[in-house]
């Protein structure tokens, strides 16, 4: 259905910003980020969606990974925001807020 397709595309479009915002507040690992998105935005994000976003953000040097070894179990890969990422968030949120304001004027 066309409406479902458009909604899916809108969700995918905002996810990189949402991921950056979550990591900027607290270093996080993949599942933690997915859970926070579900809690905050009210929709699930598949692993097949979140990890490519994390890899792209790392490649663009907006976030960087590091490993944490817990007392038991496997090490966990956390992500932290970089200084470049912090500057990017400011620009992207300004742009996002401007666009949503303009869309609001059309409604």
Automatic annotation (TrEMBL):
Q: Which InterPro entries match?
A: Metal_resp_DNA-bind_regulator (IPR052509), Tscrpt_reg_PadR_N (IPR005149), WH-like_DNA-bd_sf (IPR036388), WH_DNA-bd_sf (IPR036390)
Q: Where is the Transcription regulator PadR N-terminal domain?
A: 19-89
Q: Which residues cross the membrane?
A: none
Pfam families the UniProt entry points to: PadR
Q: Which PANTHER family match?
A: PADR-FAMILY TRANSCRIPTIONAL REGULATOR, TRANSCRIPTIONAL REGULATOR RV3488
Q: What is this protein called?
A: PadR family transcriptional regulator
| Source organism (scientific name) | Phocaeicola plebeius
């Amino acid at each position: 259905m066309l409406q479902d397709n458009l909604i899916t595309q809108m969700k995918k479009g905002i996810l990189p910003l949402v991921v950056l915002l979550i990591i900027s507040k607290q270093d996080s690992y993949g599942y933690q980020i997915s859970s926070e998105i579900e809690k905050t935005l009210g929709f699930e994000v598949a692993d097949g969606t979140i990890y490519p976003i994390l890899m792209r953000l790392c490649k663009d040097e907006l976030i960087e990974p590091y490993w944490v070894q817990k007392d038991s179990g496997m090490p966990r890969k956390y992500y932290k925001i970089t200084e470049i990422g912090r500057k990017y968030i400011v620009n992207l949120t300004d742009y996002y807020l401007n666009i949503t304001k303009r869309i609001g004027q059309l409604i």
